[in-house]
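Let's practice the habit of predicting before peeking. Look at the sequence and jot down your guess about where helices and strands might fall. Then scroll down.
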Amino acid sequence: MPAIVLLILLLLLPAAASAQVYKCKGKSGETAYSEHPCDAGAQPMKLREERPATPPPPMEPAIQETSPLRESDTAPAPAAELDRTAERECIANATASIYGPSNDRVATFQQQMAMLNEQLANAPDAQRSQALRARMANLRQAIGREHAHAHEQVNAARRRCVDQHRAMP
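Done guessing? Here is the structure:
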């Protein structure tokens, strides 16, 4: 009997592990993601259960047994196609290496904003409220600067990738 209960609990575990995610807009327009609804009308976001399938590897040309192997059957992909693939990979790597840490910093700022917002709700006096609002304004500016800086870096990295891979003969 305990084995059946354990089996049922194990089968229910993946359902319990999946969390709802809510997308929230702050008063100053910043976007935050939370496990908890932002307001009474908040709807959970629809998340993909699985990662999208990776495209299959390119098919190699079929070699017919009755005909001899021709040079065109084993010819490499055109150089322009290889350059585009390398360019896309370069851009994807640069984007991930820039936006990943930037998003982590923004998430830290958003956590600080949430804590300050809680403190603001319980602020004992107007002076404390004003100080908390000033700190929150500074964090909103820092988030804006972080986003702008990350976008500048990604755009510069894209230009470098394009220049690097299109300049190749």
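How did you do? Residues 61-67 have pLDDT under 50 and may be disordered.
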